[in-house]
Write a structure and sequence with these properties.
This protein is 53% helix and 9% strand. By secondary structure, the protein is mainly alpha-helical. Helix 1 crosses helix 6 (110-127). It binds zinc ion (ZN) (2 copies).
Amino acid sequence: MVFTHDTELGLQAAVTLANSAQEPDTLTGVADLDAVWDEFSYTGRHERTRAELDAVRAIRPQLRALLTADRDRAVELVNDWLRTYDAVPQLARHDQFDWHIHAIDPDGPLDRRILVETAMAMIDVIRADDLTRLGVCADDGCEGVVLDLSRNRSRRFCSTACGNRNAVAAYRARRRDEDRDED
Ligand SMILES: [Zn+2]
Ligand SMILES: [Zn+2]
């Protein structure tokens, strides 16, 4: 593990939400948000309403801006969000999760909680001066955010789909070169 569990979960959730805004949009129904909720073990208030979904959809550009910012810009955004949403870090322990940080009331609106949790996660990345863990997908046509939590920092693509597409393209290019060599 590169960062603490809650930090990694917060970063992964933010990247998933930011990337859901890529074409084709994958956060269009309440069920899509439910899936994100389950995948990243969110707790607290969850209305399952169109209004809540729309609010979360609306913060995706902000999440992307923070995840792709340089270090100093990331600091500005983190401080701004923490101030704006009255973040008060508190240690919490619940369900299967050992002590971790909650920085905002679990009964507050989900979109704000996601912004604050992302800001809290980015604090660790900024302090570790490890923003190269975040980048943009190496696929030519893709603007997806890449989060690389691997030990050897080998991750270049935002998704398996982008990784596979490029592996196939690289294979074809190699084949073309070999065919040419044989001519
Ligand atoms: Zn918690
Ligand atoms: Zn991609």
